[in-house]
């Protein structure tokens, strides 16, 4: 019996050890494949993005190269530029410069006085190179709007073959920022777009300060890309010294690189969490086998069976209980806290404010002209609109102590403990801007831009002994919301008591 137990124990340990190692190896290989596939997918997206821009520039250059544009035709040319920009969401602007770098035409509303772009890198490049292909430059800050953009330019040539100017399209960095934000990744995982010379164009989740920095020392550029145009590998990132599993792909038409990196620590943590129960159960089985197997083997089997059944029943009941509790406090459509959780949290926050004499703020928000949206697009689209607004609010930078909730219908609410009117006003403005940034079309709204917007009203105070209760607190915030609506909507109004 003892020899049998020893043999069985060794077998169990060996099999479980091999199984765990195989599971870990398969997890890493699957992550390599996932990273490579994601990078290839993003490379295709980037290639399509710049191909559309190239076609647009080529068409514009074909229309104007080699022939003068009369002054009475200039407005028609500007209309063409504006029309092309409206078609492509990635475009920040379209511009045409003459041979001296002076602004000739733009998709914008006005041309700055004495504007000249002869000092820009792309202009110097085309003036000194007769290359007919497009040129993609480093990220620059737009002189007309101040936004970060990628300059994509094409040389204009006169009938005599001389340099006649530059046609420029600027691709918004925010276009890639928004597209990359759609992917659900861990906080330390990254998605990046780079120039072939290792210059950073945009990397999620790093700040814009890394843009235009060089990663020439990264293994991506020193080894990986020299071996193959696309692939995967694990190395320490040159940006933050974190080890990641990278997938990378070089664009076929353009000198650009796309990379997707999964943080290895997160992968290992998830693998440990997935296999922890298996390890615990295996060790428990071995311990029970050694302690009880020497006495009554039959009784051991019965006891273990009963124990496992009770454990499973307890876990099932616990899971069901947690699930029911979560469902009772979460809005089923948006995934935000529901009205019940909001009421409980607001009451607790007011009590805490009164006890600690710390400020508390409440922001009430309402989707502008939502009934018109439902009438125009239908209730299914209305539900999708509510989901997108909820996602935008949920992704606002906030503390764990804050609560973002769906108050009811098209109304949302945010409770900000330990927050005074100044910070509440900033938060409300960020909420308004975040929803506006979605860019969801709303043809029936009275708000300029014809997109879905919200109005926000906040109320802040330190609850005193006779301070406002939850009902009065909400009424104050509602009054601020009404002021925002009367002020033209698509804005936030903040008050305090």
TrEMBL record:
Requisite cofactors: Mg(2+)
GO biological process, one term: cell adhesion involved in single-species biofilm formation
Catalytic reaction equation(s): 2 GTP = 3',3'-c-di-GMP + 2 diphosphate
Gene Ontology molecular function: diguanylate cyclase activity
One Gene Ontology cellular component: plasma membrane
Annotated pathway: Purine metabolism; 3',5'-cyclic di-GMP biosynthesis
SMART domains in the record: GGDEF
Transmembrane segments: 276-297
EC number per UniProt: 2.7.7.65
Enzyme class: transferase
Pfam family name, one: dCache_1_like
Gene3D superfamilies: 3.30.70.270, PAS domain
InterPro entries per record: Diguanylate_Cyclase, GGDEF_dom, His-kinase-like_sensor, Nucleotide_cyclase, Rev_trsase/Diguanyl_cyclase
Domain (GGDEF): residue spans on this chain: 358-497
Keywords: Membrane, Transmembrane, Transmembrane helix
NCBIfam families membership: GGDEF
The protein's name in its UniProt record: diguanylate cyclase
Organism the protein comes from: Chimaeribacter arupi
